[in-house]
Amino acid sequence: xxxxxxxxxxxxxxxxxxxxxxxxxxxxxxxxxxxxxxxxxxxxxxxxxxxxxxxxxxxxxxxxxxxxxxxxxxxxxxxxxxxxxxxxxxxxxxxxxxxxxxxxxxxxxxxxxxxxxxxxxxxxxxxxxxxxxxxxxxxxxxxxxxxxxxxxxxxxxxxxxxxxxxxxxxxxxxxxxxxxxxxxxxxxxxxxxxxxxxxxxxxxxxxxxxxxxxxxxxxxxxxxxxxxxxxxxxxxxxxxxxxxxxxxxxxxxxxxxxxxxx
Length: 262
Hints:
There is one protein chain. The protein is α+β, with helices and mostly antiparallel strands. 21% of the residues lie in helices and 38% in strands. The strands form three sheets. Strands 1, 2, 3, 4, 5, 6, 7 and 8 form an eight-stranded mixed beta sheet that branches. The chain is globular. The N and C termini lie far apart (40 Å).
């Protein structure tokens, strides 16, 4: 990774990133459901994730959202709040034609609490402006993907009457390859250290990190631009198919604007 900016990138992205977990078959231990990105769409604060992830947590009970930017106690349950989920499709499959996206609008009260817990909602309008301005004027960048990986999250441990789930978010550097109709393929660089499955990464952000090589340390990180969200694994190629920002901007945001009034 350019200039060894790994720590600075994680410090930036973890404020935008959440993990989604649930209890399976009555177990006390939490299992990974997916990831998401905190975003603001024209004043609506909520969670951007994959449609197939939202489809699951809309039907499950005791779905919990956890922050990577704070300690393990800072969580909230989707079951305990009023929320509205908007999916871009009625069914999902691993297909380039399916718009595998969803937005969950949070109540103003909950969004304020998240702000207080160091969660940061990425402004969708400003993100689009970054894509237009930086792409034309900056040429120093690298690509990363950030989200939970179930395989690396470890075995739950019991402490007294509490069961502690050891969830782990992972950052991979790689290359974004543009495909047709707003689909992206993310190609990780270090393929020897990849998990056998990227389970849990669905809904995690795909980012382009711009940097200034004339500066050092954290100051070298210019900006982080959200390019899309992870969708499904292309197992044979060890790649991740992603819903690109054009799909978010042209397919999901208009539906949010129409169906979820501020």
